[in-house]
Structure prediction request, 139 residues.
Amino acid sequence: MSATQQHEQRLYVAADDCSRPTGGPSVVLGFLKVGTRKLFVTNDSGGRMLEIEPCCVLDFYVHESCQRSGWGSKLFFHFLEAEQRRPARLAYDRPSHKFLSFLSKNFNLRSYTPQNNNYVLYRDYWEGPRRVGPGGCWE
Prediction:
């Protein structure tokens, strides 16, 4: 993987055009930023340090007025479909309590190994084969 690929990031944005006055700007409801990062992590078996380059969720935000109305799910599911990803095979950078609850509710992701770098990798990450997916991310 080249240095330029390693730092590639993609931004998904949810915006509402329906309620804006004629000629007014769109309203951003939320965004999701993803990219590849080189991480040193410990896996579940044996606790040894590994170097991996997973696809990471770097930031996920839905405006407070739109939370619990389905916009976050639409945005996240769109990303998963567009990049052919599985939530368990992603690394999450400093997820908030709300985001951890979102992942638990929508994808049954609950069990993870705490990492020194504040990324979260769920135990399901280590199961199954890995491959290079779209955007150069390890899956």
